[in-house]
């Protein structure tokens, strides 16, 4: 999970089922292996993603104390605000919880407290309750804690940014730091996702956060063994992030699918890069659990920039990896790629750039004035992959408003985050279906108007 912006949007999803291809429950699915072909997914659930403006008083900047404690070396403070959030029903009876959809992290966690509260009529009837800030374990009959003697509570478990430990109640305590300085800590627990009476996950290992830098939980969606797809045996998932709403306009709605997406026939697919465990251990800058793709280049207008494809692929030490991260807002490039993009932007609109301005310590291609006209002068921007597949950022969306009428090209230097990776953030995933096919080890892209998908 990474960068979010000052006056951006949080995509908040209210729990909703669109359809289901069959009545096989997720708990039954968990008892078998993943299907071995791309057409054998046995369920499909859809959740709408509704845009919501994040109030300014809830935005935070990275605190130096967290930067010092984090396993990620953050070199500059930055603000964050745009993340896709889905509301999911958790527990028995289900309590609806807001969770950030994060393809860049592993452990899912929810906000917890143990204060008793009155059951809503919907919860008493076994239906999901209205979305609440915190989850109350005392109201769920399927909730259980992870004790200190559990294998996950060993100090050298590699799934956590800090070692797990045994707290004063003999429960397994975890702490998680993220690249933007967000901290979450609490106890590891086991709980079910109750999608319907017939579609219930087995108990999944989650974090039950008693302290965090966010008022939302996290739905960890990467390739790790503790991620939601891995534990729930979800063979594919896809999402469509809606375009940012106008400042005073209606909030658009996108979608998240677990399982089959009816739009997938029109998707273009690129393969995921894979790394053997022994190989990744020799690559200290690599995140082996990320969704890594072999980007080939960047185009601005009709001009492909002179950037060697090797810049977008991990070298012997893991630097240069290109990952798709829904929890990161901006897109980040390693210096060699960023410098080439900046060189082209300067060639096109250099005299109009805001001199000496660096947004958040990471982005310095910023402008005052007519953003639409500047965007037309820059032209479309495209991230290029195999088989002619491109993520195209229309010229109208090349610039993002960051502060008081200032607009920046939504790219940052990953080196200023202490990272050696290229990260495609959610700002460049708008109005685009992105499908993660875990069985066939590929990512699909499809153009869309996410507010109508």
Report on the structure:
The protein has 453 residues and is mainly β. The protein has 7 helices and 27 strands. The chain has helices at 26-29, 64-69, 121-124, 228-232, 277-281, 335-349, 371-378, and strands spanning 9-13, 44-53, 84-90, 95-102, 109-111, 144-145, 165-166, 172-177, 183-191, 204-212, 217-220, 236-240, 253-259, 268-271, 297-300, 303-304, 322-324, 331-333, 366-367, 381-384, 390-393, 399-403, 406-409, 411-413, 422-424, 432-437, 442-447. The strands form 6 sheets. The chain has a 10-stranded mixed β-sheet, with no helix packed on it. Strands 5, 6, 7, 8, 9 and 10 form a 6-stranded mixed β-sheet that branches. Strands 16-15-20-21 form a 4-stranded antiparallel β-sheet, with no helix packed on it. The chain is globular.
